[in-house]
Design goal:
Strand order of the largest sheet: 3-2-1-7-8-9-10
Number of strands: 12
Strand content: 5-15%
Helix content: 40-55%
Order of helices and strands: HHHEHEHHHHHEEEHEHEHHEHEHHEEEH
Oligomer: single chain
Number of helices: 17
Radius of gyration: 29 Å
Distance between the termini: 49 Å
Largest sheet: 7 strands, parallel
Structural class: alpha/beta
Length: about 425
Amino acid sequence: MANWNWLRPGMRIKRWVFLITFGLMIVFMGAMFLTLGVFMPDAQPFGMDTYGMAVVLLIPGTVAVFIGIYRLVRRIEKMLRRADDRRDLGEIVYQYNRLEHGPRFCCFGGGTGLSTLLSGIRDYSQRITAIVSVADDGGSSGRLRLDFDMLPPGDIRNCLVALSDTSPSMAQLLQYRFPEGEFAGHSFGNLFITVLAIVQNDFGSAVREMNKILAVRGQVLPATLDKISLVANHPDGSKTTGQQWIAKCGKEIESLELKPEPGDVSMDVLAAIRDADLITLGPGSLFTSVLPNLLDPKIVTAINASDAKVLFIVNTAGQVGETKDFAVSTHLKMLKKHAPDLKIDLVLINNRPPTEEQRVQMAEKGITPTEYDVDETLSMGVKTVLWDVVNTQNPIRHDPKKTAAAIMAILEDIQHGRL
């Protein structure tokens, strides 16, 4: 019955379908008279020669067909297009087909870095799975986690918005943060996910529902549905528990662990890893966004079993409190230290340095660009790709479009055996 929904009252489609059908009938009759004129040139149906009769029928029939098709296309275009969308139907259909057959991405991370990446690659595919770390315990997410004994929604919200195919107004609404009052500091999106989780009595179901509500290009999944905490071990033997405190403690991080150890990995996450054309790690905070996902050996095993290449996207600059003076090889060593068996095939490195003015401003904040130590990096058995992926206005961030273009070029090289 679903196929007949187009003919329900109020759709304003039937009239044009009927006009096209009527026009085709008239054209068919005109063609019959034209054929009759070829074989019986002396015939005069209705007191008019067959060719004249054919013209009388073919012209209005053809006009009716063209008007019907034009109005039907415009009606469907209006139904499929949002009010703020200026694309015509041809562009909508072309983009849909292109995205539907785009590469399968499986992207690990959290925080701002992952959502930045997603907002770029969404222009090339809708077969994207973002697997988001759920170790966050700061800000609005941390308060909701504590108050409602739930997983933190903040990083998941950012990724949902990045892949959302709804109107910009909806994205603005979800990212709105209350400046004062009882909800001060909370974003509306976090509260929305929290209410859904309470109503459905399941955080995973709430995230799946948000994927539908926001018409996400692909899917956003929590890395685990277990309530975990991130623990950092320091060289002096002390420990720091909690993502926000690890980033603020100012101590060197020797190693990380998850408490408690996560349970089984969801089938959706395993399927996304298995079916991926490319698996990406980062960009984002190495210790508090990228590594937490890789502390689960079951996820590492699944990544290693996948046929997809694994691409590590190195941050453009060090991060105070985490990777202040890290070179590219230092990042890789930390990945190998925490996930010794993890395969890393490719490393994407920014090759556009900041301007002198930007370098001075960064230095004032204790930030330095990530150094590409060539010999040390290559000795670790990875292939490196140098590309301008930096946000020229904010050199500590990646540019979504540049990064996506680099990734698509990498995929093309992989497909042609160049990488």
